[in-house]
């Protein structure tokens, strides 16, 4: 275990090193941070003095080595726009993103497992065919379009007039399909509960949860169809295995076979893919947070690019890289618990 964690720590350091080099290499293409920091009336001499004071005129290797030396001490630089440490800015926005990812993950787990298992147990039923067709549509629709549709239906409201109003059935269908809206679709609201430090949570109040619903559904729409199809495919394969046939021959309850014996082995590849995808969702929050103006790391990163806030961009990319490493480490630990024949050192059990 110690050797495994040490190896992953080295991976995290390597990831941060590579990301920081790449981020510094492209900084000249992101714009001029001085232009974003000062007004148009500031003379060129003062701009040049500020550039010199910030070290922006130094060669690439000098800037990078200075940053790396400070980063080893936990200093990732000061944000040009916020005029405070970049890590403090990220720490202030990180809880919003993590809560959004948590809400989306919860939706994915609660829906994908029962739908995927049912679709494998009864692959030819109309309900299973509907879910498979809907999953294809879900994979094809981009997250920003899903978010806009959710805002139109559940926040703004939608009046349906497709069916003839003069008939009882037409009026009933129009009324049933119409929505009144009213769901929050902008920001985190005012009903936040302070937990500790920079963490103000939406999870502990009814108003906060209402603000979290639509962004979480939009973010979950990216991965939900993938997991439904993955669980269905793995479950179909497991149900054809010899031990499942033997369990049926012994007269074990079908539901025990499905949800105890088969589902456990079905989840092994799902856990592997899920760890990568959960980390990916942190990056996907950029579009979701932009549409809903959710004040998380994704929206912060997009604003940092527009402002050419180099220290904040580099710090964000490095933190996301570390999140990927931590997520995959946790997944490997869970995988070892679910499947004891797998050793974390990579040697066969």
UniProtKB/TrEMBL annotation:
Subcellular location: Cell membrane
SUPFAM superfamilies in the record: MetI-like
Entry-linked Pfam families: BPD_transp_1, BPD_transp_1_N
Membrane topology: Multi-pass membrane protein
Domain ABC transmembrane type-1: 94-335
Entry keyword set: Cell membrane, Membrane, Transmembrane, Transmembrane helix, Transport
Sequence similarity: Belongs to the binding-protein-dependent transport system permease family.
Protein name: Peptide ABC transporter permease
Protein species of origin: Litchfieldella qijiaojingensis
């Amino acid at each position: 275990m110690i050797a495994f964690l040490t190896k992953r720590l080295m991976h995290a350091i390597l990831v941060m090193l590579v990301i920081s080099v790449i981020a510094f290499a492209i900084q000249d293409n992101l714009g001029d941070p001085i232009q974003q920091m000062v007004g148009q009336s500031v003379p060129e001499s003062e701009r040049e003095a500020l550039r010199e004071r910030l070290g922006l005129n130094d060669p690439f290797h000098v800037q990078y080595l200075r940053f790396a030396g400070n980063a080893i001490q936990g200093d990732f630089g000061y944000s040009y726009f916020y005029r405070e440490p970049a890590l403090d800015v990220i720490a202030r926005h990180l809880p919003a993103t993590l809560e959004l990812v948590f809400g989306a993950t919860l939706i994915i787990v609660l829906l994908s497992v029962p739908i995927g298992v049912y679709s494998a147990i009864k692959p030819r039923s109309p309900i299973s065919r509907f879910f498979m067709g809907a999953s294809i549509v879900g994979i094809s629709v981009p997250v920003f379009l899903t978010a806009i549709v959710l805002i139109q239906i559940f926040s703004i409201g939608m009046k349906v007039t497709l069916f003839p109003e003069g008939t009882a059935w037409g009026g009933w269908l129009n009324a049933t399909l119409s929505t009144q809206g009213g769901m929050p679709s902008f920001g985190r609201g005012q009903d936040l509960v302070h937990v500790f430090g920079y963490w103000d949570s939406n999870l502990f109040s009814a108003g906060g949860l209402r603000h979290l619903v639509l962004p979480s559904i939009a973010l979950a729409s990216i991965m939900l169809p993938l997991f439904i199809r993955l669980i269905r495919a793995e479950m179909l394969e497991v149900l054809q295995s010899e031990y499942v046939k033997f369990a049926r021959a012994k007269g074990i309850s079908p539901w025990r076979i499905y949800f105890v014996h088969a589902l456990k082995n079905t989840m092994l590849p799902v856990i592997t893919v899920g760890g990568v995808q959960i980390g990916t969702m942190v990056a996907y929050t950029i579009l979701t947070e932009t549409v809903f103006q959710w004040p998380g790391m994704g929206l912060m990163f997009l604003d940092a690019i527009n402002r050419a806030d180099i220290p904040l961009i580099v710090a964000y990319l490095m933190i996301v890289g570390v999140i990927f490493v931590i997520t995959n480490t946790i997944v490997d630990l869970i995988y070892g618990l679910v499947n004891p024949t797998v050793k974390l050192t990579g040697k066969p059990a």
